[in-house]
Known about the structure:
Blueprint: E1 5-8, H1 22-33, E2 37-41, H2 46-52, E3 61-64, E4 69-72, E5 77-80, H3 87-95, E6 102-103, E7 108-111, H4 115-125, E8 129-134, E9 137-142, H5 147-158, E10 165-169, H6 175-180, E11 183-186, H7 192-197, E12 200-201, H8 206-220, E13 234-239, E14 244-247, E15 253-257, H9 264-277, E16 282-286, E17 298-300, H10 309-316, E18 323-326, H11 335-353, E19 358-361, H12 364-367, E20 386-390, H13 398-401, E21 406-409, H14 414-425, E22 442-446, E23 454-458, H15 469-474, E24 482-484, E25 493-495, H16 498-507, H17 510-519, H18 521-528, H19 533-544, H20 550-565
Parallel strand pairs: 1-2, 1-10, 2-3, 10-11, 11-12, 15-20, 15-21, 16-18, 16-19, 17-18, 19-20
Antiparallel strand pairs: 3-4, 4-5, 6-7, 7-9, 8-9, 13-14, 13-23, 21-22, 22-23, 24-25
Helix pairs in contact: 1-8, 16-20, 18-19, 19-20
Amino acid sequence: MRYLALATDYDGTLASNDRVSEQAELALERLRVSGRQIIMVTGRRLDDLLAVCSCIQLFDLIVAENGAVIYNPHNREETQLGNPPSKLLIQSLQARGVEPLDIGQVLVATRSPHRAAVQDVIWELGLEAQVIANRGEVMLLPAGINKATGLAHALRELGLSRHEVVGVGDAENDHSFLEYCECAVAVANAAPAIKQIAALVTEAENGNGVTELIDRLIEDDLQHLEGTLSQHLILLGKRTDGTAVQISPYGHNILIAGPSGSGKSTLAAGIIERLIEKDYQVCIIDPEGDYGTLRDVVALGNQWRAPSVTEVLSFLEDPKINLSVNLLGIPLDDRPDFFTQLAPNLQAMRARTGRPHWLIADEAHHMLPASWGHAAAVLPQKLHETILLTVHPDHVAPAILAPIDIVIAIGHSPQETLRKFADASEQPLVWPEDLSYQPTNVVVWFLRDGQAPFSMQAKRGRAERIRHLRKYAEGNLRWHSFYFRGPDNHHNLKAQNLMVFCQTAEGIDEATWMYHLRRGDYSRWFRDAIKDDYLADETQRIEARADLEPWETRQMIQELVNVRYTLPE
């Protein structure tokens, strides 16, 4: 199900002349039966609303007073999101003849002719307050409170994010919450400014318009709007002619494939960054600890402690948390089994909350191998919005490749990469004659619409990352480890990662340290095993200097590693 909740205004939208029609009430009941939740977002005072709304029990939560009060009609709990209006404010407005004056728990409202007087009082008293227009009324609220902030609070209480919500309204004060929702709808009688921001305008007015919207939601989940909500599109990059390449954040499965060290995780990190910027929740299955340093991503697990499925689900219950599940603590052969346990739980969570919006699985050929018997029951048949990364697309289970509709080939041999995918997934590939490898570009293949592969300059993330940072800093490089042997092979001290390298370098004798320094072994290891050219270049400069004391070279290289990789204390 695409949309799990409806957020609706009351006056002028759901209700006419204070009342909800029987037809609209029956539509709300049908919407609840469909498994969706309903939130009212109104400018009315709560006691006033309760006196006129006969179907209050059909709503999961009420956002009243233009976002300032949350009310649960089932247990009658009230939550104020702002301070009550001060007596001095009320007295000052009354002294200026502002009537009528509706005073709520937080909100103060009057008629629009008094707008100037209200603003003058705010100025004179030095209040941090805002005036909001609502057709013929003006509302005075504390700064930072509106229908959008109230809806955000309600959604978090329900365990939903804004991307699962359709909002419908009619008046100026609905603007903030409609823009906050994934899909904004205006009833036919809405103000022109509201119709302008709406993705859909109903044919009918008021409650009949809401009924029309509910019937469309139940019928096809507003599928005809998919891909048209331009504010939510995710930028992948630009074609060679400068045209932007964007995708809908819903309904796609992406494969990023290419040789080791070609930049797959860096490309994925840029996409993840842009998803997070638009409030889409991501869950990253991170076999090598590559993504734990991304901004706004919580890293769970390390090489000493394996994460549990329960921990993963607990973190993801909060819509604001994006998670990187580090699998370094799980043996390679056991990772498919871990995924087998995690996937159905994520599927159930998505059915209930719509989240996590995107699942990213790196090293997919290890996680979902072609030889794995459970492949057909797992991703991405039942969990869409998935990004898979792999060196070997032909080693990934065919059942997992089948729903892939976007392939991004990165590295020096994109034609070979796409050919391996096409053979493994039984997709016909026609390589354009004018398409050739470009070092600064990737090749993108949209399978669903029959496009031929094309060259694209990928959109980079705002922050450059060091590839495999955590693995190199704390993991186990196995046969790529550094060995301090010294002259005549007096030692055989293994440094399986950068942390151990620095610790060993601190205590190794000077002869051994200088032996490897003069041979250029440190810069060679940084370049070939760590694959960090910057670190290698800087180290090579230190190795070439004859004016430094041995202890200075040791200290300078250690500091380079520490700053570059932020090693743990």
